[in-house]
Design the sequence.
């Protein structure tokens, strides 16, 4: 009887213990977690036939594609094995309520060399195609980038039949000099010059022409099944070159642009500017007599002089009978006339009836009927001398990143780190170097007119938001230009092109508290100061609008004395991660072991 009583007591204890652990597990239940480990290091590669040092993620160039689903909690442990500081930026991920995770110098202190640091953010109410990259020291010019795919939840319908498979393609201009050499060139007051080539998924061109392309270059091959439809996601991760993307003999049915489903329409080719991402539905409906060219070529240049700056890959059917041959499919023939490209950009429209990340239609947010509360005309100029240095500007101000990040300075109520005086229109008088940012109004509705007075194409990106592209045209914007705005189905996206000698107007609903970067995506102009930040503050702080500063926040600048001298990222407390579940399992197993001894 005593043995039976003891056994009953033991099982009662175990059942109670299991219930406790199940309750703990439920208390951490909610949206799923996805975990990634990124080791960022240098490797030697020869994408254009010249050995050089590139930045790899887990030994791969480009890095792995992060495949997640709407509302997933994403945890990325980053090990910095470079010889300089590092930040990773998740371009297009809106970081709702978590500006602390944006990976830019205005919000984060850098990860020191040989340190770990863990990012944790939620891809809240987002779908679409994006990419990540290193945001400091011109490092993106050496790689370190990779794709981000945010899938719909199963219960949310997508506005097309489920594709057979998903393919990610990274395109971009490329130099055979690494980022430190390119950086030195810019700091010396010089232009970078013409790129040495264009890469497709980190690889050089297929040898379509024996004179132009040297032998021995590794090229990208994408193998597909005949009769199937694929979703092909393409991002321009380059430095400053707009690229025309096309696949020989195949239509590109545009389906999505940076998190918004588009009105579906076919293109034989599409201009993809620096920092932009699109996804296409491509049907493999051609015969398999040969392979087909995948091409990414520079836009608005003399093609005869830029022939070598062309990326060429291969689309290979599984039953292909031969190699691709003949000339490449022709790009648009409009070196000096950008009207075709602008009209193409205007043709990209929001699918207002499709569900996005939520079940309600995208068009249920009627942006065209909201009153504008703040207006900024933001004008760039070609590089100019500012305080004896060759710099770039917005509204006459060349931005200087503070040693103490803006958001961290606010957290600790530091004075003098930045100024809330970014002008609403271009300044008169000589340009200046300052840390001047925009004071945005929480729940305001901001209109920004991006006026490109430079001689080259620019793309502009804003962190924390998707903005509505409501208009673009050549010439100088005026109040009368509003009569041309698209107030119904202008695409909502994170990066927009602004043609030289032209303007683009965007509308932004300022509902995401934080400090958000507004910048040119042209890496050389960004590096030289063409950016600012928009600070959005809730006057009644609450965790519902912004999460607390993370436990593992790094300190630098005026707050550097608060930073512990060792790598502590593994010991930090995160908001619900796999270690909690592992801890519960270990405790449960340990308890069972003790009871049965």
Sequence:
């Amino acid at each position: 009887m005593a043995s039976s009583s003891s056994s009953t007591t033991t099982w009662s204890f175990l059942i109670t213990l299991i219930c406790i652990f199940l309750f703990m597990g439920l208390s951490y239940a909610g949206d799923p977690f996805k975990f990634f480990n990124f080791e960022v290091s240098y490797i030697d590669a020869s994408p254009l036939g010249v050995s050089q040092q590139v930045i790899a993620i887990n030994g791969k160039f480009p890095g792995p594609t992060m495949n997640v689903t709407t509302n997933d909690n994403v945890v990325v442990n980053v090990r910095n094995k470079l010889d300089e500081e590092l930040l990773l930026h998740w371009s297009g991920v809106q970081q709702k309520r978590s500006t602390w995770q944006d990976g830019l110098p205005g919000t984060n202190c850098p990860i020191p060399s040989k340190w770990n640091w863990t990012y944790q953010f939620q891809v809240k109410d987002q779908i679409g195609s994006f990419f990540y990259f290193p945001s400091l020291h011109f490092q993106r010019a050496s790689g370190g980038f990779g794709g981000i795919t945010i899938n719909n939840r199963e219960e949310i319908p997508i506005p097309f039949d489920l594709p057979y498979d998903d393919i990610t393609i990274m395109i971009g201009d490329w130099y055979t000099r690494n980022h430190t050499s390119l950086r030195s060139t810019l700091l010396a007051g010089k232009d970078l010059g013409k790129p040495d080539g264009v890469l497709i998924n980190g690889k050089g061109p297929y040898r379509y022409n024996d004179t132009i392309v040297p032998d021995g270059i590794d090229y990208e091959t994408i193998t597909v099944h005949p009769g199937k439809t694929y979703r092909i996601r393409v991002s321009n991760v380059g430095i400053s070159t707009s690229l025309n993307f096309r696949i020989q003999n195949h239509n590109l049915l545009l389906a999505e642009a940076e998190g918004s489903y588009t009105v579906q329409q076919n293109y034989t080719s599409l201009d993809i500017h620096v920092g932009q991402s699109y996804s296409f539905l491509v049907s493999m409906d051609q015969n398999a007599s040969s392979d087909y060219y995948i091409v990414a070529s520079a836009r608005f240049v003399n093609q005869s002089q830029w022939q070598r700056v062309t990326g060429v890959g291969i689309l290979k059917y599984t039953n292909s009978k031969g190699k691709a041959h003949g000339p490449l499919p022709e790009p648009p023939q409009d070196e000096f006339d950008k009207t075709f490209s602008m009209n193409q950009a205007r043709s990209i429209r929001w699918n207002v009836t499709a569900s996005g990340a939520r079940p309600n239609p995208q068009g249920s947010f009627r942006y065209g009927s909201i009153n504008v509360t703040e207006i900024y005309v933001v004008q760039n100029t070609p590089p100019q001398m500012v305080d004896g240095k060759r710099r770039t500007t917005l509204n006459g101000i060349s931005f200087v990143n503070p040693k103490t990040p803006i958001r961290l300075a606010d957290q600790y109520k530091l004075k003098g780190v930045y100024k809330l005086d970014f002008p609403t229109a271009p300044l008169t008088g000589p340009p200046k170097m300052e840390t001047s940012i925009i004071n945005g109004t929480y729940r305001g509705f901001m209109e920004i007119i991006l006026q490109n007075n430079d001689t080259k194409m620019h793309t502009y990106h804003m962190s924390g938001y998707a903005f509505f592209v409501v208009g673009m045209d050549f010439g100088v914007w005026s109040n009368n230009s509003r009569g041309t705005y698209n107030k119904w189905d202008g695409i909502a996206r994170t990066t927009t092109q602004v043609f030289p000698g032209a303007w683009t107007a965007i509308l932004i609903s300022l509902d995401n508290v934080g400090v958000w970067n507004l910048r040119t995506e042209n890496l050389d102009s960004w590096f030289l100061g063409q950016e600012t930040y928009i600070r959005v503050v809730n006057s009644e702080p609450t965790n519902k609008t912004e999460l607390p500063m993370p436990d593992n926040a790094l300190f630098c600048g005026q707050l550097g004395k608060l930073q512990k001298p060792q790598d502590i990222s593994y010991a930090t407390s995160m908001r619900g991660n796999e270690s909690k579940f592992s801890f519960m399992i270990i405790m449960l197993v340990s308890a069972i072991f003790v009871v049965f001894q």
About this structure: The radius of gyration is 25 Å. The first helix runs from residue 2 to 27. Confidence is low (pLDDT under 50) at residues 1-29, 567-597. Helices lie at 2-27, 179-187, 339-346, 406-411, 523-527, 578-595.
